[in-house]
Design a protein that fits this description.
Layout (H helix, E strand, L loop, with lengths): L1 H24 L9 E7 L6 E8 L8 E2 L4 E4 L5 E3 L21 E13 L9 E2 L4 E4 L10 E3 H4 L5 E3 L9 E4 L14 E4 L11 E3 L1 H11 L4 E6 L14
Parallel strand pairs: 1-14, 5-6, 6-7, 12-13
Antiparallel strand pairs: 1-2, 2-3, 2-4, 6-11, 6-14, 8-9, 8-10, 11-12
Length: about 240
């Protein structure tokens, strides 16, 4: 009887091992994520994409959609592989550099909520006069949120309190590499009716941005990918 029990345990372990190994092979921060916002573009040059929210109980479980896919906007020039995910690129696919007006293809943690509008959310950053995101690779403050009072007015940056799209948004924990001019100031923000693209961020209607703020409060990751690349993350992303 003991032999039969041991055999059953070994058989179960053999079935589960590939799932566990596959989960461990997924790139960070996706490998341990339980909430996901997947933004999918038809190709690298389109300005339009779809965004959908998923969740799972544990990193070994399959992703479960919790909302229908909805339209989203990405960069004016489409998307390009982030320097940090360049190993997933294929011949002819662009790599993101500062100022290219492309959203960075890759996977990143979603940070805290922000906005021009006031909010009672924990950790919320209200944009006030002087709040700036530094996009100058020559600055030590590159790819950080700073104030004009601290960095002065000569350093190039986006004066966030003056940008209507930032009435509501979320920071994206996009890595910094000034030497590679890898890009900066990546956000999820409001899509204005008259706009058909972004400067390199992801834009959604305000109600959807607020829904993502609620969704990401407990932690979530953002994946921005061309549809053709979904198979390069086999076993890591939701199955269409």
């Amino acid at each position: 009887m003991m032999v039969k029990i041991q055999a059953a345990v070994l058989a179960l372990a053999a079935c589960l091992a590939p799932v566990s190994a596959l989960a461990q092979s997924c790139p960070a921060p996706l490998s341990d994520a339980r909430r996901l916002m997947l933004v999918t573009a038809e190709n690298m040059t389109t300005r339009e994409a779809t965004a959908q929210l998923f969740e799972r109980a544990t990193p070994g479980d399959p992703w479960r959609p919790i909302a229908l896919a909805e339209p989203a906007l990405v960069g004016r020039n489409g998307i390009a592989w982030s320097y940090f995910f360049r190993t997933f690129s294929r011949k002819g696919e662009p790599l993101k550099v500062e100022g290219d007006k492309r959203a960075p293809a890759g996977i990143y943690r979603i940070g805290k909520s922000f906005g021009i509008l006031p909010s009672g959310r924990a950790g919320y950053t209200q944009l006030t006069e002087g709040t700036t995101c530094i996009d100058d690779p020559q600055s030590p403050a590159y790819n950080t949120i700073a104030s004009r009072a601290k960095v002065g007015w000569k350093v190039h940056g986006e004066n966030m309190w003056r940008v209507p799209e930032y009435r509501s948004g979320l920071f994206v924990d996009y890595p910094t590499n000034a030497r590679a001019r890898a890009g900066s100031c990546i956000f999820i923000h409001v899509r204005l009716p008259e706009k058909n693209s972004t400067g390199g961020c992801v834009a959604l209607p305000q109600a959807r941005v607020e829904a993502v703020q609620d969704f990401a409060q407990a932690g979530a990751v953002l994946a921005i990918l061309p549809r053709a690349a979904l198979g390069r993350f086999e076993g890591c992303l939701p199955v269409n």
